Amino acid sequence: MKCVYAISLLFCLLSCPSSFGTRYTPDWASLDSRPLPEWYDEVKFGIFVHWGVFSVPAFGSEWFWWYWKVALKPEYILFMVKNYPPGFSYTDFAPDFHAQFFDPDEWADIFEASGAKYVVLTSKHHEGFTNWGSQTSWNWNSVDNGPHRDLVGDLGAAIRKRSLHYGLYHSLYEWFNPIYLSDKQSGFKTQEFVEKKAMPELYDLVNRYKPDLIWSDGDWEAPDTYWNSTGFLAWLYNDSPVKDVVVTNDRWGLGCYCKHGGYYNCADKFTPGQLPNHKWEKCQSVDKISWGYRRNMKLSELMDLPSILKDMVYVVALGGNYLLNVGPTADGMIAPVFEERLRGIGAWLKVNGEAIYSTKPWRVQAENATVPVWYTSKSSTVYAILTSNPMQNSFKLLTPKTSHNTVVTLLGNPEPLKWAPLQTSGLIVLLPDLPFSPAEAWTLKLDEVA
User: Per-residue pLDDT for 37 more than 50?
Assistant: First the structure.
């Protein structure tokens, strides 16, 4: 196996350049110099999908197996004692991962209706169960077990029919894989798991499904040198079938977060306090407690629509992408409460999307007016997004520098609004009655401002 990867890497280094015109070498200085494909910054909003065997117990968290067997959390132990017979193992859940109601076109319709431009599906979480027929997973996969279908391929086909970008989440490590645990026991001086499992699966995913994005995870216990991350990324950027379009995150080994890779995740639900100097993404879940589906979730534990929109606007104003997660049920359904949130986002974006898609951070990202205002921009157009109703007819914006050619409109309302410049800078605008918005957010479009 080592010889195979050595030959592959040698070919990677010696063959013709990618269409970016650069050959990337397997070191961070070279890999980090790769320009991020433009599509990713333009799309702004994506859907994250956490789905796997953990969707069968659907209790507590997608970390169910770990919390039950390692962390020994009492609530997980009690759940098993009350509901399953003695000797029941986690692998016994897999046959009940039926996905019998999974309709990839229905999912894709919901995701498209949300206004999302990319979708990231878990191909494999830390439990090691693969949502495709991985040749290195024995029968711990969705083709030989549970659904008996290629979930990664089926959803990918439906997503691409709607011209959305398709990404795959992949966990490098597996909690209880004996080969990984053997490498861990050696202090990661051996790499048998990487050579026999982690890397073959990544190469297989790329060659088979040609994802536009790879969302790496489960890397933090070992350095990138153990994972052979730089070798894989050099192949991905130089010679893979997606070399010119693929986007990657920063989870490629201990110490890589917010430092190496494509765009930065930094940490789950990362929320910077100021404009970062590198493209970033916030992954957030509608269910504030879990990424996977929970049968015991409560409405009070879910993000409501205004909270989601405020979070998205904040992220985009600071130059980030917003990846919003939903966890489907084991039988393949998107819960109605999740669908309601997604369709609500889409309804808001139909009116206000031009203030989100393909925008850039403005010279000022926010101001505290009567209500919070977040700014985005496109050339000489600035968008001021109000994240609550000012409840008044006149509204001051102190930051924009207007000219005689400035035109102010409310997105969704075709008539220009009356406005006047303030004495030093900014303007006062006469607002119409704001239309009802379940999202509690409205956008003023300012054309021809400095």
Answer: yes
Whether the CB-CB separation of 97 and 327 falls below 8 Å is answered with no
**Bridge partners of residue 161, in order along the sequence:** none
Longest dimension (CA), the chain: 78
Q: Where are the beta strands (DSSP E) in 314-389?
A: 320-326, 360-368, 372-378, 381-386
Which CATH code fits 360-447? 2.60.40.1180
Please state, as a whole number, how many other Cβ atoms lie within 10 Å of the Cβ of residue 311: 18
- Are both 20-355 and 360-447 of the same fold? no
Burial group, residue 370, by CB count within 10 angstroms (0-12, 13-18, 19+): middle
Residue-range domain boundaries for the chain? 20-355, 360-447
Q: How far apart are CA 13 and CA 383, in angstroms?
A: 45
Please report, for the chain, how many H helices and E strands are present, in that order.
14, 15
Measured in degrees and rounded to the nearest 5, phi and psi for residue 203 equal: -60, -40
DSSP-derived 3-state class of residue 89: coil
Per DSSP, helices labelled H in 239-304 are none
Cα(315)–Cα(57) distance, rounded to whole angstroms? 33
Best CA proximity match to 124, nearest among 115, 108, 136? 136
User: What does the pLDDT look like over 282-329, one tens digit per residue?
Assistant: 999 999 999 999 999 999 999 999 999 999 999 999 999 999 999 999
Q: Look at residues 189, 160, 159, 194 and name the one whose alpha carbon lies nearest to residue 177.
A: 194
What's the CATH architecture for 20-355?
Answer: Alpha-Beta Barrel (3.20)
pLDDT at 7 over 50: no
pTM beyond 0.90, yes or no: yes
Q: Which two tokens stand for residue 299?
A: 């409405």
Q: Give yes or no for a contact between 271 and 258, defined as CB atoms under 8 angstroms apart.
A: no
